[in-house]
Amino acid sequence: MRTDRRTTILWWVIAAQLLLAVGTTLAGWPQPILNVVLLVVVVAMHALRRYTLMSFAVFAAITFVVSNVYENLSILTGFPFGDYYYSDNLGLKLFLVPLVIAPAYFATGYFSWQIAHILLGVTGARPRGRDVFLVPLIASFVMVMWDLIMDPNAATAGGSWIWEDGGGYFGVPLVNFAGWFLCVYTIFQLFALYLARRGPAAIRPEADGLGDAYRYQAIVPYVSVALVLTSRFLTREDGVVTDPAGQQWQLADLGETTMLVSVFTMYFVALLSALLVSRTRAI
Fold this sequence. Notes:
Blueprint: H1 5-27, H2 32-47, H3 53-77, E1 84-86, E2 93-94, E3 97-98, H4 101-120, H5 131-157, E4 161-163, H6 174-198, H7 212-229, H8 231-235, E5 240-242, E6 248-250, H9 251-263, H10 266-282
Antiparallel strand pairs: 1-4, 2-3, 5-6
């Protein structure tokens, strides 16, 4: 199988992003903003081989608008994520939400969308029939796996956002994950309906002919996200953190739990996806 120049360049960019993820993991000091920027670059290079520029822009717009609306709404009213607010750790904000949050949704959401295609065996460039609803559903589960690992680290341990009443999952409330599912499902379902309505005009003519390398290139960045999120286990942090409700949590327990959950969620899904791609090729 011949590897074209765009595929080679994309692999190098992904390798750089993965190297950053591994490096920050081993050093114990993740750089979320830089990592998100590189992830967005990978998304753009990957997505524009399958989708038209208009479809890419629509997915970006849907993600940015929906995520920002839901986040600001929850900060103001408690719906759908619960009562929380952002600290100044993540830099400049759009209204009440840091600017980096929407690109993070966009990048990880895109990889979750692609992995959902692999898990469901949807090899076409756009979902059709019942897959218009199944792909968003599965992509939402894959996406929430990210938050399941991220939130305790970034919120309770990192203080990037603050849960005012704490919660049972290392200071994070259960309602947060229900809100996340609603938010990302809204994003994916709107995009799926857009693709269904636009039909072939939403994708590039060569999109259905993209090979296995293209699918692997969506899996590796998803793994890199998991690597960054499991850094607390690898760096063996000690100490105690207290959430706003007064509950104390051991950082070592948080790191160990994060690693355990990630192995059986994000890492498992990535492994299963890679095996499915390989198995499809073998058949």
